[in-house]
Structure formats: structure tokens, C-alpha cells
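Open question from group meeting: does this chain pack into something compact, or does most of it stay loose? Before anyone orders reagents, we agreed to write out a predicted structure and look at it together. Recording both the input and the output here so the notebook holds the full record.
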Amino acid sequence: MEFHHKPVLFSETIEALQISPQGVYIDGTMGGGGHSEAILKRLTTGRLLSIDQDPDAVASTGGRLSAYPNFEAALGNFSNMGEIARERGIESVDGILLDIGVSSFQLDTPERGFSYHHDAPLDMRMSKKGTSAKDLVNKCSEQELSEILFRFGEEKNARRIARKICEVRGLSPIETTGELAQVIKDALPAAVKREQGHPARKSFQALRIAVNGELEVLEKGLDAGLELLRPGGRFVVITFHSLEDRIVKQKMAKWCEGCICPKDFPVCVCGRKPKGTLVYKKGLVPSEQELSENPRARSARLRVFEKALSVR
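C-alpha cells returned:
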């Protein structure tokens, strides 16, 4: 099985890492290995640890990149990168990359159950373990489903869709992506169905995020990465929707905050200094050329944080 993924903002991402040939790096979302291999090609005595929770990625990409002597693949979630790194004798790193979200391989492999473009078992588990989308769709209450769709998909018609799902599953379980996509479509008003984009897009995103705990994992991974990062090191994150980007933006902004003393204090007594700085204040978005070549890049944003040389 070949695990393919077309990296978004590829050259910008690799450039942002400022790779040192002797440096130590973590690719927390190895996927198809495009970023990992680009990092490896720039290393001499350095080291790369690539992590992925998808066993297919670790088996396929990990096997292919094992030809590089300074490479190691690990099956796990990037939220646990600190523990994974320390188990391998890595106490600190010069750079960390996270390419958040579902990979092209997962979307384009029908049996993984991520896409509404194919009729396949309703799954969406990146790790192939735990609660599936089928479980959520058929077991959650109408209120729980509505909250998932609204919170993680920002779906305005969440209540209407949740009600329809419960109505249909009351007759027979919803077991495939095609069935769910049709249920969602049937639940929506005609005017909504005429809007640009697939009518099930937001709902599928919401279920995927809920199944994989993506937002909680991202929060934890950002904190773990900051702790691992050496002074002067860079944390590079690519997001694909507003919920992810908001978390990264707010977290990095918090890291850049300095003194928290009341404004009427004549001098600083807290002694707090910024943990680092933003490399791009508003982040980077794909060029028009990239968008024309890869429509999936349309919502991507690259944010980069550089850790201060001295942090208190």
C-alpha cells in the first residue's frame, strides 16, 4: 500500500523550519512523508523523528524512508510527542512540524470512511481504533449529535440534520458514508443545497473531528511541542479550518505575551517575558497558483512560532 499525500504550502513550510544539517526535528504528522523526506534531505548528522497515529502511514511511509540512517518512525499521536521523543533519547529539538487534519490518502481511500464522495463503511478513525463515526451517528442522542455538528462543523442546520439522522436510524442503522450523505442532503432546505460545496461537507468534518478528538489533541500537542523546543527553535503548523487555526493562533499569541502586571504599576514585578515571537504575524496562505493546482489547499494557513533564546 502506497501512502500518498500532497503537502500544502510545501516550500514555505520547509523554509520556515530553517533546517540545520546537524539539527533534531519532529514531524508530528508524517502521513505520506513529503515533509519528512524534505527534512531528511537537508540533514547530515541531524535526526528526524516522524510520528503518525495511522498504522498505514507508519507501515508504508516509515518503511520507505527507513533508507535514511537518521530517520525513525513512531506509531502514536503527536499530542504525546514529548513522551515518544524521550523514549527515544530525545530531550529537545530544533524544529517541529504539524500538518493538521485528514490526509489525501485517507480521503481518497474509500474504505477509511472519511469521504462523502464514496459509499463505504462509516468509519473516520485515523488510528483505526476506538469509537467510529458509525457509533456516533447511531448511538448519540439528537441533542448530542446537534452539538457535535454545530460545534465542530459550524453547521447552521445542525438541529435539522440531527433530527433527520435520528428519524432514519430509527428505521435502520446508518452504516455507510453514502447513506449518511444522503440523509444530510434530505434534511437540508433546497436553498442550502444550491449553495457552493457538498451539503454534507461540514457535517462530515464535524464527525471526523469528534471521532478523533482533534481539537483536544491539537491543544495538548502544542503544549508538548513548546516544552520540547530548544531556544531559537521553530514550531511550524499548517491548519485547514477555522477551528484549528483559532486554537493555534490563540496559543501562539499567548506564548508571545510578556509582562502581565497591572498597567498602573511603575515597574514590572512579575518578571514574565515572552516565550518567543511570531515569524508571520497573520500566517501564510497558499498562492493563487497552488490553489489552481490543488483545490484542497483553499482553507490552509501556515503559522510559525520561534522560541526565544532566553525564556523565564
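Observations to bring back to the group:
The chain is about 40% helix and 15% strand.
The chain has two domains: 10-99+214-307, 112-212.
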